[in-house]
Specification:
With 506 residues, the chain is mainly α. Helices cover 80% and strands 0% of the residues. The chain contains 22 helices and no strands. Helix 5 packs parallel to helix 8, helix 6 crosses helix 8 and helix 13 runs antiparallel to helix 14.
Length: 506
């Protein structure tokens, strides 16, 4: 719940910051900030997977601190984070000097691009230096401290950006709030670790050794290759569009996919919140329990993606028109493709996420990188035939061809399941889709010529209620229904009964 509170604050920040920025800035300046943010994601690959490695290996050692391994991982992680922060500043500064001309940034914006890149790099370096505290909270399944702190800091970030925009700072206003956000997150997480006793006591710190570094680096190397490929697949679109079609196309992508990114954060976090617990089951050898819980997580995530994707496909173009008062055009066909990609990505990410928790990447260390290269190459080949739409089609094709089949294969092997048994996990997904797709297409056809506000109201209202009913009734299998009813307040159980929901428990 604390994670979704933080996510809600993040959603509010994203929804409020875009129209606020476009009120003070032009589309080209806004696209410039979006471009710098995405380049920052590539600079962060200097992490080389060490962050994810520290977070996962802490779980291996947290139950026994006396031998010093736990403290050794912490000390090594801090030293690595500080060193990587220094490299980020150097890399960001060097890249800012040459990337402007390579990406065809207009001459009047190149100076702004230079200083934005430097500022973004400094803030990213600070976050690397202090992120060990977040990893400690995650390893001990106590992330609520940082989540609640982030929820408050998002509002501080928005207030700082607004004040800077009003003061005439222009595109640099984005950096103003992020300074407080970055420093505040470090302070809150550090205080939480100290209060909850997650830092080693005297005599438990261990030593920084080459053996400990190799343990972190060997696992981190696999995470790095995984992250590099994932970055190419999921976070290269703005860079490609800025280079191929200009900053206004990059701005359109940033705005048109804003709601999609919110949905991915909501759904991805079902697995993300569960990952430390799943890893602990692996460490303790609870494989049967792990299979049961992973199956529930998969069904919940994928079916929620189907429901959310149906709503998104119907409502997003109308939402963009109302939200930004028709300042940016976004065709509905892109929404349909994004809805398909949402379901594909959630399915793929859940299966491959399980592989990551096993620490046995094997060929998965390369599959995302191969897929990323294929996506970039295919986009360069077909973008002339459809722009953003063609790029989305390339994304779906590549994920279906590479990472999704591999993730399914690894789940099949890890649990020793037959292919029919694994396919049966998604039987409810097919049923849910059959309830939603015809109703969604009919609603779109009946409302397609209405004003955007009315389309949004009818889609979000009537079809939204239908989607909620279909998801609760058909998107949750009997096990999940029983667990929800078992945990629900008594006053709500008659409501579930009227829906035909887990009757055996009511």
């Amino acid at each position: 719940m604390s994670g979704y509170v933080a996510l809600g604050a993040n959603i509010f920040y994203m929804l409020a910051s875009v129209p606020l920025a476009l009120h003070y800035l032009g589309k080209a300046e806004f696209g410039l900030w979006a471009l710098v943010t995405q380049i920052g994601g590539y600079i962060a690959l200097i992490d080389l997977g060490m962050g994810g490695s520290v977070a996962r290996i802490l779980i291996d050692h947290k139950d026994d601190r006396r031998n010093g391994a736990y403290g050794s991982v912490i000390k090594t992680g801090v030293l690595v984070g500080v060193a990587q922060g220094g490299l980020i500043i150097l890399a960001g500064t060097a890249l800012s000097a040459v990337a402007g001309s390579l990406l065809h940034i207009p001459a009047d914006l190149q100076r702004d691009f230079l200083w934005l890149m430097i500022g973004q790099s400094v803030l990213l370096a600070l976050s690397f230096a202090g992120r060990i505290f977040n990893y400690l909270l995650q390893a001990h399944q106590q992330p609520a401290v940082s989540y609640y702190g982030s929820a408050v800091l998002f509002f501080v970030n928005l207030a700082g950006m607004w004040a800077a925009l009003a003061a005439g700072w222009g595109v640099f206003s984005f950096l103003a709030g992020q300074v407080v956000m970055t420093l505040g997150n470090i302070v809150v997480s550090a205080a939480g670790c100290a209060r909850l006793g997650f830092l080693p006591r005297r005599g438990e710190w261990g030593a920084v050794t080459w053996l400990r570094f190799r343990e972190l680096f060997d696992f981190g190397r696999d995470i790095f290759l995984y992250s590099l490929g994932s970055q190419l697949i999921n976070a290269s679109q703005t860079i490609l569009l800025a280079r191929l079609l200009g900053l206004e196309a990059a701005a359109a992508w940033t705005v048109g996919t804003r709601a999609y990114l919110v949905l991915t954060q909501v759904i991805y976090r079902i697995f993300d919140f569960s990952a430390p617990v799943l890893a602990e089951m692996m460490v303790r050898g609870e494989k049967e329990r792990l299979c049961h819980r992973f199956r529930q997580i998969l069904i919940l995530s994928v079916n929620l993606a189907v429901a959310a994707g149906a709503m998104f496909a119907l409502c997003n173009s109308a939402f963009v028109s109302v939200w930004l008062k028709n300042k940016i055009e976004w065709p509905p066909v892109n929404d349909a493709l994004l809805a398909v990609w949402l379901v594909v990505c959630v399915t793929m990410r859940t299966h491959t996420g399980l592989v990551g928790q096993t620490k046995q990447f094997r060929f998965m260390r390369y599959i995302f990188f191969i897929e990323g290269l294929a996506f970039v190459g295919l986009t360069l080949a077909i973008y002339r035939f459809g722009g953003i739409t063609a790029m989305l089609a390339a994304s779906i094709f590549c994920t279906l061809s590479f990472s999704l089949p591999y993730g399914l294969y690894r789940t099949h092997k890890y649990f020793g399941l037959g292919w029919r048994e694994l396919a049966a996990w998604n039987r409810s997904t097919l049923v849910l889709a059959l309830w939603l797709l015809p109703a969604g297409m009919l609603t779109w056809w009946l409302t397609r010529y209405l004003p955007a506000m009315l389309r949004l109201g009818l889609g979000g209202g009537i079809f939204g209620l239908w989607t909620i009913w279909a998801f609760l009734r058909h998107g949750l299998n009997l096990e999940l229904q029983n667990e929800i009813v078992g945990r629900a307040p008594r006053w709500s159980r008659p409501i579930f009964a009227r829906m035909g929901f887990a009757k055996s428990q009511i």
